[in-house]
Specification:
single chain, 453 residues, alpha/beta, FAD/NAD(P)-binding domain, Polyamine Oxidase, Chain A, domain 2, Guanine Nucleotide Dissociation Inhibitor, domain 1, seven-stranded mixed β-sheet, disordered C terminus, binds flavin-adenine dinucleotide
């Protein structure tokens, strides 16, 4: 090609921002389209009276390397880093107990873990060593042949139910609160190898700010919805925007949810791809963000509710304010997130009813909490997290094979999103990087065939 190739990226969530960032650094002519008025997707936030309101605890781990490096590349290391350490805690019989789950000794001390089962944890390093590079964090397809049983089946067989409930499920699901009886054991194994000993922290600013800053350094078009993608005669793609405008490009990265991707790319997809998209399942999230007149904790505290506690809550994050931070100094913020099951059942419930129920659930461990609330917001997302159930990694492997085949035939359409990597910001960003790598390999004719590795 004797001109700079033109690439469209659809969706300015972290996957799309990551793809557009890498592509523009590689010298492509990139245009990023976002249908909402602001970039960020599920990482966006709003600030009300000095409180950053996000749909969930915006925790990041020291293992989220791609994300941390990107924060520096975007130019916000001083605003967002270093992370403010978050203390982990678990609810046990209506009491909050601080824990240190970063090594096996700390895990064995988690309240509610049966001693005999805790002792079996010594098996874990051997198991992990046996799985080797099938747990590569950037290549989820490699975990396909570990994707044969659920986290609950695997964990109960090797360790015991209390280990699954108190440690394995919270580690595997992070912010996503899925069901250990359905989730793939590969999700836990991949998380353990990357995040096992890592520290969790809070960024000092908001992720919405990160998305906005990155987008401002790219050719970003907010308020532009892509309605359809079609093949152009010869090579490349034609993009149809809401309102009737069209744009011809050499390649497109589609970084939106699986159902939306299937819809806009429908004319170009094979039946295998359509089936693959149709099988991606999402769990909803329902969160109460409560601005507090006092901090309620001396340091950021993330409280997990094991399933066996029978609460509507999955996690609660208490964030004390600091000067120049995300919450006013001397005040606090609580993010109370419901379990996926509760969220599914109450997705359409009135705000008042949701808030009342979640506050009551939290008052069981923090009596008097409601008196500290200044104002509150219920935040919901119908497609909160993609589920990584048993079979998901095999699906990803199949999907990647089809992508390799389509690329060989000259189709210049690429997909990115957390559903292809990991249900997290870091996962979304990495999926964007992978898509950008594939575009680069194809359009610049490099020998790297990223998707087939
Ligand atoms: C409540 C909640 C809490 C979370 N907490 C954490 C956490 O603490 N830590 C963590 O690591 N992860 C967390 N996550 C997960 C994380 O937010 C997601 O994994 C990640 O943001 C997904 O990014 P994405 O780019 O794949 O998708 P999205 O963020 O969904 O981005 C897709 C974008 O595409 C746009 N779009 C869709 N269709 C079109 C179209 N036709 N044309 C143009 N634009 C379009 C959308 O508006 C959106 O902006 C949380 C998610 C939720 C819902």
């Amino acid at each position: 090609m004797d001109r700079t190739p033109k690439v469209a990226v659809v969706g300015a969530g972290l996957a799309g921002l990551g793809a557009a960032w890498r592509l523009s650094r590689a010298g492509f002519d990139v245009a990023l389209f976002e249908r909402e008025p602001r970039p960020g997707g599920r990482a966006s936030s709003e600030t009300v009276d000095g409180y950053t309101l996000e749909p969930v605890a915006s925790t990041v781990s020291t293992a989220d390397r791609a994300l941390l490096e990107w924060i520096a590349e975007v130019g916000l290391p001083d605003e967002l880093l270093p992370l403010r350490p978050v203390i982990a805690a678990v609810v046990h019989r209506d009491r909050v107990v601080e824990i240190d789950p970063r090594n096996l000794r700390g895990i064995a001390r988690i309240p509610g873990l049966r001693r005999i089962q805790a002792l079996r944890l010594v098996r874990l390093p051997r198991l992990i060593a046996r799985f080797g590079d099938r747990l590569d964090p950037e290549r989820p397809a490699r975990a396909a042949d570990l994707d044969d049983r659920s986290l609950a089946d695997f964990g109960e067989l090797y360790f015991g139910a209390s280990v699954v409930d108190r440690w394995m499920a919270p580690l595997a699901f992070g912010a996503s609160s899925a069901d250990a009886r359905e989730s793939s054991r590969a999700l836990f194994l991949r998380r353990y190898t990357t995040h096992g000993g890592a520290r969790v922290g809070l960024p000092r600013g908001s992720f919405g700010e990160l998305a906005e800053t990155a987008a401002s350094k790219l050719a970003t078009y907010t308020g532009f919805e892509v309605e359809r993608l079609e093949l152009r005669r010869g090579t490349g793609l034609r993009m149809l925007l809401r309102g009737g405008r069209t744009l011809d490009v050499d390649a497109a990265v589609v970084a939106i949810s699986a159902p939306d991707a299937a819809r806009i790319a429908a004319p170009i997809l094979s039946s295998a791809e359509r089936d693959g998209f149709a099988r991606v399942r999402y769990a909803p999230t329902v969160t109460l963000a409560a601005a507090l007149r006092r901090p309620f904790a001396s340091h950021p505290l993330e409280v997990r509710y094991p399933r066996s506690e029978g609460s509507a809550l999955a996690t609660a994050l208490l964030e004390p304010g600091v000067s120049g931070g995300r919450v006013p100094d001397g005040h606090g913020l609580a993010l109370l997130r419901a379990t996926a099951e509760w969220g599914r059942a109450h997705l359409e419930a009135p705000d008042d009813a949701v808030a009342k129920h979640l506050v009551e659930a939290f008052e069981r461990v923090h009596p008097g909490f409601r008196n500290a609330v200044l104002f509150q917001r219920v935040l919901r997302a119908a497609r909160g997290f993609p589920c990584f159930d048993v079979g998901r990694y095999r699906e990803i492997a199949r999907f990647e094979e089809v992508q390799v085949d389509r690329r060989r035939r000259g189709r210049r359409l690429y997909f990115a999103g957390d559903y292809l990597m990991d249900p997290s910001w870091n996962g979304a960003l990495l999926s964007g990087y992978r898509a950008a790598e594939a575009v680069r390999a194809d359009l610049y004719g490099e020998a790297v065939d990223a998707a087939s590795r």
